[in-house]
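User: Predict the structure for this protein chain, please.
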Amino acid sequence: METAGLPTKELRLHLVTWNVGTASPPPDVTSLLQLNSQGSTTDMYVIGLQEVNSKITNFLSDLAFDDPWSIFFMTVLSPLGYMKLSSVRMQGLLLLIFVKHVHLPFIRDIHTHYTRTGLYGYWGNKGGVSIRMSLFGHTICFMNCHLPAHMENTEQRLDDFEKILEMQFEGEDIPSPFDHEVLFWFGDLNFRIADYGIHFVRESINNKRFNLLWEKDQLNMAKKKEPFLKEFREGPLLFKPTYKFDLYSEVYDTSEKKRKPAWTDRILWKVKNTCEVASKEDEFPEEENLISVNLSNYLSHMSYGISDHKPVTGTFKLEMKPLVSEPLVTLQAEGEWSAEHDVLIRYSAVQEFPSSAWDWIGLFQVTFRHVKDYVTYAWVEDDEISSNKDSKQVYMSASEIPKTGGEFLLCYYSNNLQSIVGISEPFQIQRSQTPIEKDLSEEESSWLQNAANPQSGGNPEKRKGI
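Assistant: Here is the predicted structure, written as structure tokens:
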């Protein structure tokens, strides 16, 4: 593959890890997501939570509906132009990924997985959840873990992490996490500070002499001796240990147990040295990097007190040579759209696009939350009205178009690829000239209900019997 002429693409990723201790979401996450200073420049948010409330009644309801944390982050991020790309839940472990709309056509092969390790693997109170994808042609995996607690369980933590690495995507036609070009590993990893007593640890923290504690951090020690950890990188621990605090305070544990402070909550990453491997085969110049990861900041957030852990964030800059630079499908709304008449969509696909009779085009509000949050949709085959070698036209019925108007966009969903492969520019739907009755008709009531909860009405999944 020739890459010499490819421009470098830069993406900004913001990762969050937080053991929320079964608490409900806080009133505000502006600083956690850096929305004041960097929110507008962030391309992807990756949010890993541990100890999300997993009482059996909560867990069963969350399987049927989005859990409160997912709803909370969607409510915050969707008005800013981010869609929930994917999520995976295993008991108290939750991993969410939000991405800017403009990148959606270049994210493919999304898969999720989970591995239980707690209670001999029968109950998912400990373990790991992963989301992997192809991002502009590069393979990336995000792994959120909750490893065993307590000072003496270092070896158990390492054994569990090795087991999680081995079992993620096992039996599927997907590379192991280690074989991805970039692997992010984060979560409540539960490594502690060995040897030093609690008074020395607290005194070092009070004097901000964190470096005195680094060499006895169990994860730092393990990285020096365990071959499978040596390639992982981490930013400097220039913030206070994030465990264990009294609730709603910045005071370390004052209970009878008086837990020794520790950096339990961590974010690490590993880049597979593809350019070195490739250069041996003379495919690429040795100095050319196809993808690199640079840490911009690594912080804890002391103001959040809903649990005995403080959240940790890492902001990264991904620089890559995009191996995918054109969307598989381009589409646009034709003419003026309103509920006064049927409307038209024109789209075209690249020659190699694997289309399916189950592909559909959804009409979404610009603040849509996830792929099922459509207002209405059209089947690309059933609703096609014209076709030539360059493009095709699909119609949507006037009865499906919202009479109130507003700003919308169109997304093409590929059933074979299980992802959005094309997205239109935002466009206006004109407000209906027909007076909107205060007493809604049955048809309008049904539309509003589906708009509020698209899974309750007709949808592509129901047609397929899913």
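The longest helix spans residues 154-167.
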